[in-house]
Amino acid sequence: MTVAGLPADLGIAAAAFVGTNIDNTLVTTAMVAGAPLERAHRIAVGQVVGFAILVAVAAAAAAVLYEFSPAVVGLLGLVPLAIGVKGLAGLRTAHGHTDAGSAPRRRRRRLGATDRAVGRSLTAAALVTIGAGGDNLAAYIPLFRVGGTTNLIAIVAVFVAGEVAVTAIVLAGGRHPKTRGVMTRLGAVAVPVLLCCIGVLVMLESGTFSLL
């Protein structure tokens, strides 16, 4: 990259950010919508932390000219898959131990299972973001290899601006009454199933199943 081509480079960085963060935005918004409102900021911050770790790993790999095998990177998909499976197992346990005769109790049961699925924590959100980040690494490592302080600063600036926008979308969408209403109607199963789908999709796109 050169300074003369900086506008085009910024566009490439922005396209890479958007293309690799749609899944993260979707799943984090669902996590916020399925958790108590007081946990929204923790989940959003967890997503930011997870993204920062992915960017740091990509920058480090670019600096030492290290290439991640796509199939190996796809193993990250096991993280959201495992969290989703654990959430579904927790939902089944909650169903077996809760009296279904009361609507408030049913609602508490759904929320309890969702809490187990998403962890209601910064750490859980960070792990999910990292687990869904195979495509992030594949796209960001070449970007960080372009060289030049000006270009690298520009890429990081694009990522920071994009992450600010993602955080705003996650909080606005996840805390919106309509979104939370949809999550309530879908029940606690929605978030675990979404996590499982994200995990399987990451591994399919990376060709990870060829390792099995």
Overall tally of domains: 1
The whole-number mean of residue pLDDT values reads 83
Question: How much beta, percentage-wise?
Answer: under 5%
Total of DSSP H or I helical runs spanning 4+ residues = 10
Beginning-to-end CA distance, first to last residue = 39 Å
Low-confidence stretches: 109-113
User: Roughly what percent helix?
Assistant: over 70%
Instruction: Please tally the β strands and state the result.
Output: 0
Structure explained in plain terms:
This protein has 10 helices and no strands. α1 (6-33) packs antiparallel against α2. It has one domain (3-206). 79% of the residues lie in helices and 0% in strands. The protein is globular and about 50 Å long. The chain has 212 residues and is mainly alpha-helical. The longest helix has 28 residues, at 6-33. It has helices at residues 6-33, 40-63, 70-73, 78-97, 103-118, 122-131, 134-144, 149-175, 177-186, 190-206.
